[in-house]
Model the fold of this input.
Amino acid sequence: MRRNWDAIWMVARREFVDQLRDWRIVLPMLTLIALFPFVADDSTRQAIEFMNKYGGDLILERLVPFVVLVIGFFPLSFTLVVALESFVGEKERGTIEPLLSSPLEDSHIYFGKLLVGITTPLLFSGVSVILYLLLISRREIALPSAYILALVSLLTFAHAVLMVSSAIVISVQATTVRAANLLASFIVVPVAFLLQGETVLIFWGNEDVLWLAIVAVTLLAWLIVRLGLSHFRREYLLGREIDTLNFKHLARTFWTRFKGEADGVLEWYTHELPQTLRQLVKPLLIVSLLGVAAIAASYLWVIVEVPEMITLTPDRTDRIRTFVTGNLALLDEVSEQLPAPILFLHNARAVTGIFLFGLFSFGTLGITFFLVNMGLVGAVLGGAQLIGLSPLLTFAAGILPHGIFELTAFFIATAAILKIGAQLVTPQPEKSLGEILLVCIADWFRVFLGVVLPLLALAAVLEIYLTPVLIQLAFKP
Done:
């Protein structure tokens, strides 16, 4: 353990020396530290005056933690250039050969670069935050508690690991510094959107809700670190000189994987598709457990929390139940208002959203989107329980007839995107990251076109033409 740390520190010390003697890095960061806290302090003063004039105690109470989070983000975005050129920059300058030819392990080199990339922005962020807190201590506003500051600090640290690890992955894959810098927008922009979501948690949630953001960002950062380490090969850095985008090769590779060895549609369905589905057994088990847990958690939350939120008295419950059962005749018009093809396209779009969100987050956001859909199922069952209807009968008549196909499609599609995330972070020395990603996408489209879309089409027909009839028979007044 000590030997590994010494090797990592040797690489990190070399990077620290190079950074501290480069005025193009040090001077902009010192300028940022010297100016930005004062700008933030003046903005806080104006916000306080505005809130005191028109009211807004909640915003005043959450203002300082929000500004601290923003101050922590700006140095991260500015110093991202250091991580972006950590490998490709040295390659262009011709200084990476001695490092790669050393007896250091790949993990030592990678973690040494990662350590410097994280430490530098966190140091500048910490100094900026401390200076800002000293400045606003003169204002007539209560400073946030140590607990809140600790949560925001953990969130800033998670942002640093997420952004720097992403930048290092780009630096390893890119062949020029220009290409790496152009790809930086794929880091800064998503994290900026993530920061907006965390701002909502700060202003409208409570302190404990921030733990959800911390856990989510930390998990995503760990996956990206694992991705970079899994696909870091020093021979790969020395062997690639130029990037070429060969669409014919990409299309050929995708089609070869998608088609497999099948000579026709029937052989593809009987041989290639079952082979892909067998690889989804473990991911499907995980997704099934998470889906059932989400349905149960949502059901219990509705049962426990909703009656207190809307003051659900017995009289009000009777009126709601009477209204619901008295309007069952409106289900006869569902096929006119929502045709089956439109419902099919809606569900297909939802599955595609799971794919896109999951593709850029190693499956985590895709699973989150899936859990939200499962939570809606639990909420419907809980709502039925609250107004005196049988949740079991509601599930059997209103969800199961089409849900046996629709939910199966969602479960399989989510399991396929979870498999993509697992394959991306699994070391495969014989393949590049791009090759692995292309093969994973081809496997997902196998499942999507061969299983998911037919199930969704059948579910849409049943949901429009069969489910309303069963609901009317089950809950006829």
